[in-house]
Amino acid sequence: MSKDNKMDKLVSFCKRRGFVFQSSEIYEGFAAIYDFGPYGVELANNIKSEWWKSMTQFRDDVVGLDSAIFMSPKIWEASGHVKGFSDPLTECRKCNARLRLDTILEDVGVFADEKMSEEEINEIFDLNKDKIKCPICGSQDFTPGRKFNLLVQSNLGNFTGDWTKEPTYLRGETCQGIYVNYKNVLDSARVKIPFGIAQIGKAFRNEITARQFIFRTREFEQMEMQYFIKPDDYEKYYEEWKDVRWNFYLNLGIKEENLRWHKHENLVFYAKEAYDIEYNFPFGFKELEGIHARGNYDLTQHSNHSGKDLNYFDPVTNEKFIPHIVETSAGVGRAFLAVLSDAYREEGEGDNARTVLKISSKLAPVKIAVFPLLKNKPELVKKAREVFDELKMNWKCEFDDNGNIGKRYRRQDEIGTPYCLTIDFDTLENDEVTVRERDTMTQERINIKDLKDFFNKNIL
Amino acid sequence: MSKDNKMDKLVSFCKRRGFVFQSSEIYEGFAAIYDFGPYGVELANNIKSEWWKSMTQFRDDVVGLDSAIFMSPKIWEASGHVKGFSDPLTECRKCNARLRLDTILEDVGVFADEKMSEEEINEIFDLNKDKIKCPICGSQDFTPGRKFNLLVQSNLGNFTGDWTKEPTYLRGETCQGIYVNYKNVLDSARVKIPFGIAQIGKAFRNEITARQFIFRTREFEQMEMQYFIKPDDYEKYYEEWKDVRWNFYLNLGIKEENLRWHKHENLVFYAKEAYDIEYNFPFGFKELEGIHARGNYDLTQHSNHSGKDLNYFDPVTNEKFIPHIVETSAGVGRAFLAVLSDAYREEGEGDNARTVLKISSKLAPVKIAVFPLLKNKPELVKKAREVFDELKMNWKCEFDDNGNIGKRYRRQDEIGTPYCLTIDFDTLENDEVTVRERDTMTQERINIKDLKDFFNKNIL
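Structure tokens for the assembled complex are given below, as produced in the milestone run.
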């Protein structure tokens, strides 16, 4: 399978089997937005649940939070997003395509620093205009570049007619909701440094060009954790969190050969260190998660802008300080795409050909499929229903009585269901069912009364 | 506890114990938006998880979906929200308070129909002006009423300078994402009528006045299910869903005497029937969930506006029809507030006084608290850690070694932890721990090796 080919196959698979739909499809779509279908929402929920459990349930130094998408606009001024969070935009005068100026410069080998002013980047743009063509229509006629702010603006809470002068913002990252609740958490949750706050939630960015399916979208979901530490402790905890986060993906079943570290060379001025975990997507190694030592910049900014004392007082050493932060920042959509890309296989030939999602059982959208051998034999259907009704209380199950068993296996293989279970005429005699495993395709007979123990042991 | 008093107590409890924080508090707040703190996010997640399991896992006729907050603006034109989804707004000329005109009319006994035009409602307004006073400052000088659209507008995906002419909308209800994906689900999920699509997600409304804590907020989370049926079947399924939804709240542990039905008398023209489940909040009986027989209005609108055929073809009867819909629409914030209000108790007197959250164990933010009897005895702390590390793999646990056991019990009672478990010196001899139950406050000694069975049986 070539890499291009694989991406096309994944996109088509996602639609066909109800993992991901293009937004507003019956209305000809809505750019850079996607919906999760019936199996997709289960997979996404399972990824989020694994993250949440590993962060908040399995450790006792991290608590959860769910701050709202909307916050005071002052927060985005303090964070620097209102002024500084922008990409340079140009438009092709011929086909009206909107393009990221830094990207089309990069395509001709010219590097534009994100800190450059509008004038600076336009100077470089003018110098290189003879080399640059519109990637859509080939024209060389562009509007001058302008900085376009990525924060999405809205009129929530604004009841005046002309509200663009005082917009409210949809959050551009979830972590700001953690920073501004740090004091609330300190005052209510009995935490002591070092401690973390973990949050899963939507964020929004007005990306000029959104590409690569669900890899970069204007609405996306983040899983972010901010770990509050003593100023001098960052090296120790930074290394610890790098390990923890790397192992998280291995625990999801991602192959280690498809992961690598990428060290950031151009750090923002306050950052001490920044690494990405990259995954080998069909379009190359790209960021899956960022792990950042952010110094005390965030809390210092919010302390200065809000006028509130955000110092931490250490009751043991009597020290007072603004905590430093190690951040881990992952995306649900990217983890989703990495998991699918890693697990998707086409195997066998002819009658034995199958598409199979070799996904960890803890992530599988459906854990167990239950089949009566024949749909027109009421006694088989009844027995199968009984087994289904029992197992569904513990696991996400699917009942399927349609077509021959081979076809039913193929349908479940494709969505990654680890076990299929068939009720046949022998079952009516001896209570044994055929349990078939997805990856090895081996079958064994198990008594109905032993099924719960079997699945408790084999489904993670 | 008087009702006013109770609401004040709940709000203060929510902040003190990390259930709900006012948004952007260090920046003096952001109106009508709230954040869930460490225990709040666990409770909200547990409510959502119970809804999701009861809707999608325990039944095989409902599939899940997670459509994005943003969709094509055409969807909100088709649904009628762009034109019709508005409240009448007036401003006090003296104190600049923004007020809902229909509400202040209601306060003087005048009923303004929501279908009234701006002119019609201003006529009534003028006729009654001598009776109406600003509830904030008492002035009688108001601006004329104007219809204010509740859909929140944004510039997502719009890169022009003057984007208010072509805004995109944050969804005002999650169900539209279900309607426009109905065909995708039909084509991918092998569903047959009758079937449902369930979704949990955020929605946004520019409420003019938001009141009553998390009961009515501008950003809120919905749990909506749309059940697609044959045109003539609505009575049967409507009654069935009324039962299912009523029982859902009983299963959450809500007392039945605090629930009641409210039948809508003024139906929108396409609706066949509409009932609310109301809960007896501290501010009176108010809507917790709506159950609506919506006819085939929604799919018909989207079929007409998109030009796509949204008919269902029944392979058994060869009939072709636009399905009718029974909707169940609940709010996470309202369920959260109902659960807290129902469970919050102040008991005992003097040294025996305690606040206790008598919440179902399936909803409790923490299931088990683990205490070493004394924090300065390493052998007790070590043993307690071992028990904690074992149990946390199955249940959300909390470790607490601070203060005397009585105080630790009180802290856990207040957040509704069903079981506290103390490791003492006897434990080191015989492996038995004291397990104390929240509601009865009874204690029993249980061997560590039997704890899992005990909690498996007693925690839902």
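The mean pLDDT of chain A is 95. The first helix of chain A runs from residue 3 to 16. Further analysis is deferred to the final report.
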